[in-house]
# Entry
Amino acid sequence: MDYEITPEDVKTMFDRGVGFAFLDVREPWEYQAAHIEGSTHIPMGDVPNRAHQELDPDAHIVVVCHHGVRSLNVTNWPRQQGFENVQSMRGGIDTWSRTGTGRCQRIEQSALSSQHSVHDESRD
# Structure
């Protein structure tokens, strides 16, 4: 299995009902600002301590960050621990949301301090 997967390939898997899990490795404030619905959030630095408790080693896991750099770095660690089906999504959540490939929920910056309105970027 390749270390990277394109957002288009992830979207195809989703559309075909292929089971996989999103692992978001960004910092909490980044995840709060925008995230892929249904993703599991484990910040990059916490992955070694939490992966075995929160992730299925047999599952296909797509790791995502902002631009794909951190997720590619994180992909190596689980693979060394026996998680064989882990891939980094090339381009990260930025490419995922900008290309219209998939759904991304973003909390409006002006709402962070007040009502936390959610903006569905798939409708842009």
